[in-house]
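testing teh design pipeline on a random one, pls ignore if ur not involved
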């Protein structure tokens, strides 16, 4: 079983995947404007308006890496922390997407 979403919400998600791809071949990996990479996971729960929602994870930043290294924890580039969540309405408008410029995305979409 999967989840349902409108064509508009799917197009918006596709635009985000295209414009913010981390370039590693994964459809849910993203590169944030600050240079860090991460990924998003779609919730399998249908949204009432046909939108899509989920969670966003990101790499550790330099301060976080230093914190763990100072405690003798081996830090790798694959370590992530929660960055927040995302929600795209059924009409394709981005309500939130942690770490990404929502206003710019909506402007490109004309939403």
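output:
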């Amino acid at each position: 079983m999967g989840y349902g979403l409108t064509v508009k919400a799917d197009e918006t998600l596709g635009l985000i995947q295209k414009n913010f791809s981390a370039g590693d071949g994964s459809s849910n990996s993203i590169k944030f404007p600050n240079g860090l990479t991460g990924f998003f996971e779609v919730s399998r729960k249908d949204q009432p308006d046909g939108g899509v929602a989920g969670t966003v994870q990101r790499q550790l930043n330099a301060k976080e890496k230093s914190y763990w290294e100072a405690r003798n924890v081996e830090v790798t580039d694959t370590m992530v922390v929660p960055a927040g969540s995302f929600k795209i309405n059924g009409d394709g408008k981005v309500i939130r997407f942690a770490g990404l410029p929502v206003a710019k995305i909506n402007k490109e979409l004309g939403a």
